[in-house]
Design brief:
The structure holds two protein chains of two kinds.
Chain A (H helix, E strand, L loop, with lengths): L5 H58 L9 H9 L9 E7 L4 E4 L15 E7 L2 E10 L4 E8 H49 L19 H48 L3 H30 L2 H5 L4 E3 H11 L1 H6 L3 E4 L6 E3 L2 H18 L5 E8 L3 E8 L30 H11 L3 E6 L5 E8 L5
Parallel strand pairs in A: 7-9
Antiparallel strand pairs in A: 1-2, 1-5, 3-4, 4-5, 6-8, 9-10, 10-12, 11-12
Chain B lengths: L1 E5 L3 H13 L3 E5 L2 H10 L4 E4 L8 H10 L6 E5 L4 H9 L4 E4 L4 H15 L7 E3 L2 E4 L4 E4 L2 E3 L3 H12 L5 E2 H8 L10 H13 L4 E4 L3 E4 L4
Parallel strand pairs in B: 1-2, 1-3, 3-4, 4-5
Antiparallel strand pairs in B: 6-7, 7-8, 8-9, 10-12, 11-12
Classes of the chains: A alpha+beta, B alpha/beta.
């Protein structure tokens, strides 16, 4: 089917099929009516022959002669009149003696016998170039034969006209039926047109569900599926909107700080005070830069980013690089960085995402671990997963705050660190992308232990 | 003339503190909602500058707590939330003014002055007392058209006395309005400032009520 229009498809399939069916039915009806009519005309022919035979018989019994001359003219008239005048030309008869002498005939009848057959029943004969149906009644008892003939052309005409009359209602119903089919198909596809119109006329931001009221049952699953998608899109947009909203607000505060310090510098006459304000200004710019950086990291952590490159990566190799990157900072605070021995921790994941994950966890640990502390990284493997644990000897996170710290922009009250409250959100997002799990607990050194379980074969 | 700044961003908080100090306010700065309530309950402030997104207890809750306790100190909300609904919620919760971040420092100072002026029941910006005029915005004092120079604290002390004309101000009350809790205060600081004021403005303006405090009499 070239056209993918449901309506066309239905019409193109239904209409010819139904019309063909009707035609076939008409044909069958026509032939069966014709057969019935033929039976009727045959009976008529037989009946006529019998009536004629009886009449002739009656005349013979009355007059006692089997002689042509004895049949009175008025009797013949009477016999003629017993037939419908209109069929005169189409109907003929002959009465012959057993010897074959013609006793009586209609005007249209030839001199020679209508049919060579002398036995009782139907036969066909050619008379004056036309085909006739002949019925013969031989009579041994009375000594004469009656033959009645009817023109085939006339028979056909009767049969056809009666059969056609029977077909009229069927033929009349055909266009009505066709119209009904077109209407039915149209009206059952109208909800689809309304639906597409509704969807087309929607405002771009309108993500409300599509009503399934008045829709055909067959379409409801489609629309339900579509509605589920709409809900998810709405949720995603809402999430994005909240994120942008939060991000804008989070950026405003450090920007206000920058502007305030800059205005203070303009007003300040005293060099020492100006330098102090400049220090604060630079600090504010650094914090804002860090915030913007973290926001960008978080914004770019979409599912597509996680799936771009999922060749097998060694978490251990990535951890080694990340630890090396943090060595200087650790050294400044005299913090011992340790990576416990273990397997390579091969998982299918984007190495860049894993680097971001490790950098954020290590960055946090280094920020909160006091001087002379220690940070311990451990990678263990199981059949299904690779487990990364980072323990530090910092202050840890109280149990009631462990859920909060995973939220965006959340900072533990009284926490004077320079964090922007996004580090653990970023970690959480990456763990989610790889269908992993994150758990915060108390480390054996009394600080924080971050446990991350990443399944080996995830499909991000 | 003591102001409480409630702001969790260190740079912004520090900046606000500097600006307000320059304008002659004594400034206390706290970084979370719980501390804000503690400070509000324990001291008398001319003005509170309140951020909304605070750790522990958000700004609106602090404000509601404050108003429920019957405190009438003007509160200026200084926040990143700029939606009309947020402004309405803030003002309806009992704020007297609402500013969004980032802001202009001079506008903030002007609004702070306006709010403290209303607090002392005055609507004209310049305080006139005889031939003496004190302009809190310009930070100037003139006597008979002649400009007289004052240090920040001297100016604040004179303003406090002029705003409370006819009321005897105790030494403690004056100290509280002049110094933040972090300032180190000499026990005779107020006496020293009064002495300086008298030197510049003459001895008749400020009267000492022995054992009670100081007063500038209402003009007849």
């Amino acid at each position: 089917m070239k056209s993918s229009s449901l309506q066309k498809k239905l019409l193109v399939t239904l209409l010819p099929l139904i019309l063909l069916g009707l035609l076939l039915a008409s044909l069958i009806m026509y032939t069966s009516v014709r057969t019935k009519v033929e039976e009727l005309t045959d009976a008529q022919l037989t009946h006529t022959a019998q009536v004629l035979s009886n009449l002739v018989n009656h005349e013979f019994i009355e007059h006692g002669y089997v002689d042509r001359s004895l049949v009175a003219l008025d009797d013949i008239e009477y016999i003629y009149h017993s037939f419908n005048a209109s069929i005169n030309e189409s109907m003929i008869f002959q009465v012959r003696s057993l010897e074959g002498v013609l006793l009586l005939r209609t005007a249209g009848s030839p001199e020679y016998p209508l049919s060579p057959s002398s036995s009782s029943g139907f036969s066909n004969a050619m008379i004056k170039g036309k085909t006739w149906k002949i019925y013969t009644i031989p009579s041994q008892k009375n000594g004469y034969t009656v033959q009645v003939g009817m023109k085939y052309a006339f028979l056909d005409q009767i049969q056809a006209s009666i059969a056609l009359q029977a077909l009229i209602p069927i033929l009349a119903i055909m266009p009505i039926l066709a119209m009904a089919i077109v209407y039915g198909v149209r009206s059952s596809t109208i909800p689809l047109f309304h639906l597409s119109q509704d969807i087309r006329q929607r405002a771009p931001h309108d993500l409300s569900r599509i009503s399934t009221i008045d829709l055909p049952d067959e379409i409801i699953p489609l629309i339900s599926g579509f509605n589920t998608l709409l809900d998810r899109v709405q949720e995603a947009i809402e999430h994005e909107r909240r994120f942008t909203d939060d991000a804008a607000h989070e950026l405003r505060t450090p920007l206000a700080g920058i502007k305030l310090q800059a205005q203070l510098i303009l007003k300040q006459q005293d060099d020492a005070a100006r330098n102090e304000a400049l220090t604060y200004l630079i600090q504010a710019v650094d914090r804002t830069t860090h915030l913007v950086h973290q926001l960008l990291v978080l914004a770019r952590l979409g599912p597509e980013q996680a799936s771009t490159d999922t060749t097998p990566a060694s978490l251990r190799d990535i951890a080694v690089t990340a630890l090396a990157d943090h060595y200087n900072l650790a050294n400044k605070k005299h913090i011992t960085l340790k990576l416990e021995d273990g397997g390579p921790g091969i998982i299918r994941a984007n190495p860049h995402s894993l680097t971001i994950l490790l950098n954020n966890i290590l960055g946090n640990a280094l920020q909160y671990t006091p001087n002379n502390g220690e940070i311990d990284v451990e990678i263990t493997e199981s059949q299904q997963a690779v487990i990364l644990s980072v323990s530090d000897s910092g202050p840890g996170i109280p149990e009631h705050e462990r859920e909060n710290v995973m939220r965006r922009f959340y900072r533990i009250p009284g926490n004077e660190g320079s964090g922007c409250g996004l580090g653990l959100s970023i970690v959480g997002r990456i763990v989610d992308l790889y269908h992993g799990q994150i758990a915060l607990e108390r480390s054996s050194q009394g600080g924080l232990k971050v446990n991350i379980t990443l399944p080996r074969n995830q499909t991000p | 003339m003591r102001v409480l700044v409630v702001e969790d961003d260190p740079v912004l908080g520090q900046g606000l503190q500097s600006v307000l100090k320059q304008d002659g306010y004594a400034v206390d700065w706290v970084k979370d909602g719980e501390s804000a309530i503690l400070f509000m309950d324990s001291s008398e402030y001319t003005l509170v500058i309140l951020d909304l997104g605070l750790p522990k207890l958000n700004g609106l809750e602090v404000l509601r707590h404050f108003r429920t306790a019957g405190k009438e100190t003007p509160v200026l909300i200084l926040t990143a939330r700029d939606a009309v609904a947020d402004k309405i919620a803030g003002l309806d919760a009992g704020a007297d003014d609402y500013m969004t971040k980032p802001f202009d420092v001079d506008e903030l100072a002007a609004r702070a002055r306006a709010l403290s002026r209303r607090q002392t029941g005055r609507s004209t910006p310049v305080i006139t007392h005889g031939d003496l005029q004190l302009d809190p915005a310009a930070h100037t004092v003139t006597q008979g058209g002649v400009v007289i120079e004052f240090s920040g604290r001297e100016f604040s002390l004179l303003q406090a006395l002029l705003e409370n004309r006819g009321k005897v101000m105790s030494k403690d009350k004056l100290t509280e309005s002049l110094y933040s809790w972090k300032d180190e205060i000499e026990s005779n600081a107020i006496e020293v400032h009064i002495h300086h004021l008298r030197k510049k403005l003459g001895n008749n303006l400020i009267r000492t009520i022995r054992g009670v405090g100081y007063v500038i009499d209402k003009p007849e």
